[in-house]
Structure formats: structure tokens, C-alpha cells
Amino acid sequence: MKEELDFTKKRVTIAGKSAIFQNKTAEVPFYHTEFDGEIFTPALSENTGPTYLGGTFETRPGDVFLVAYPKSGTHWLTYITDQIAKKPIILNKEEYVAIGTIPFLERTLPEQLEVLPSPRYMYTHLPYHLVPCSREHKVKYVVIVRNPRDVAVSQFNFVRNMKIVDFNGTWNEFLSLFMRGTGFGGSYFGWVLEWWEHQEDNNVLFLKYEDLKKEPTKQIGILANFLGYQLFQEELEEIAEKCTFKTMKANGVGSIEENKISLLREGKSFYRKGIVGDWQNYFSEEQLEKFNRWCNSHLEGTRLEFDFG
Ligand code: A3P
Hints:
Layout: H1 7-10, E1 11-14, E2 17-23, E3 32-35, E4 38-40, H2 49-54, E5 64-68, H3 74-85, E6 98-99, E7 102-103, H4 110-114, E8 121-124, E9 140-145, H5 148-161, H6 171-179, H7 188-196, E10 204-208, H8 209-214, H9 216-227, H10 233-242, H11 245-250, H12 254-260, H13 285-299
Helix pairs in contact: 3-9, 9-10
């Protein structure tokens, strides 16, 4: 049976802490990686986990990390950034899980990133306390967050549709996991609030999925300025057009489909709906009440607000 993994082979110690890779348990019934009691996506494998969880990845001046809790718009942000920065095509692109020319940190070996020219752009789901950092290097972080109701719905569909994640439960079961801090990628509020504490840092740009949806050109302009690009209005509009849900879906953008299609169940796409407010099709009144109480208990006093559509 699939669930009977040989954990002895997968359990390792990283920086004195216990890690288990690509595991599925009764408590977290989908494939995930666990490190020091925290849940991560199964993208962190035995090959890459020791570097990124162990904090040994060396940054370089100019490095830019595009950061998102899973299903918050990672691919969208990455593709927009790719358009802004017009990075040259990566040689041997097939070695990476990349969007456009930007590689996925957790799926890429450090030696593959070493050969990239500066400034390097990488996307990641790592929490603040584990993301590569450096005091000397001017490393930048662009963080995108999305309202938790739509993230929960998007994750539910994703974990069911991804063969290698393989969640077989109901929406209600997934919602309980999400609220318990065991969503796909760990605790939503643990992740978001830790990054939010740094939203005023000079090297951090905090974006919201809903703002990007409502006023793409303006938000793309903010992102471009943060990255050091001064673009004309027409250029911003052109990028916004290239990066709409419709266009990205029609073009099967980047490698989102190319690289990962085989990981999806038949007929399923990484481009699901791409809207704000799909939660309304999933939450019962009772679920919403409970969810709102849970959200409020985390958001109180943080000044972080979400647009739920
Ligand atoms: P839905 O499942 O709600 O449709 P991530 O890239 O972090 O995995 O996030 C995936 C979510 O972003 C999916 O949400 C996907 O459809 C949505 N998405 C992808 N491209 C988008 C775009 N250009 N505009 C808006 N949403 C987009």
C-alpha cells in the first residue's frame, strides 16, 4: 500500500532537529514533509531539504526571493516578476521546476542555483524563519498573501487533484486540518503573521492577491519599482495583460503545466478559477462562523486585513 512508507530511510537529523520527507500520516493525511514538528510541502525532499531546512544555502548580493504560502498566487507573482525582470532563458531548464525562467527553491539543488547569473530570482514557500537570508547581501523578499477562506478552498482542490499529495478526505475534513495548522504547507497564520511582522522592512514588499486582481497595473508598478525597474504605463499594461488568469491559462504558462501536468489527476489544471470569493461555494454557515472566530483570534491587534470578495 502507498501509505506503508519506509520511514527509517526518510527520517534524518538536520541542524539537530528531526525531519521526515514526503510522508503521509493519520494526523496529516496527505504527502508532506515534516521538520522540527512543522509541516512543509513535499517539494522539500531528501535532496534539497537538508540545505533549505538546515539554513546552509548561501545567498548572493542581489538575490530576490518570491515568497508565498501555497495557493496564494505563487505562480502568478512569479510569472509577473519574470516579465518585469526579463531574465534570460535558463540553460537546461528541464532540470528545474520553474515558472518562466524562475526556479522553485525547494525543488532545486543549490549547485544548480550557483550557476545562475545575478541577480538571481527564486520562488519559495519557506516561512520567514527558514528563508535564506544574509546581513551583508542586499537580499529582497516579495511576499504575496491571499485571504484565508480562498486559500483553504484552493488548497482543498489542490491536495485532492495532485497525485503526489493524494488527499482523499472531504472539504470539512480538510478545513479542520487547515484550521488546526496542518494545511498544505503548515500553519496559515503561523506563516502569514511571521512575514507580516516584517512588512515594513526595507527589503520586504508585501502584496495581496486581491489587490493584484483589483488593480493589476498599479500593483505590478509597485513590484517593478521595488525590484529596481522603472516601467512605462504601456509596459505595465502589457505585463498585466500577459498575466491575466485567462491568458496564463490559455498559454499553459510557463512550466506550470509543462513541468507538473503529470502530477495532476486527469482533467485537472493548475489554473482552477483564479477569482476572489470562491469560498462562498464551499463554506456552510456553521463552518464560516467557526472559521471567522478562528481568523479573528489570530488577526486581532495585527492590523492585517483581507478582502473576501
Ligand atoms: P484557485 O485554486 O482559487 O483557482 P499558487 O500559484 O500559489 O499555487 O496559487 C494557485 C492559485 O492562484 C489558484 O487559485 C490559481 O488558479 C490562481 N492563479 C494562477 N494564475 C493566476 C492569475 N493569473 N490570476 C489570478 N489567479 C491566478
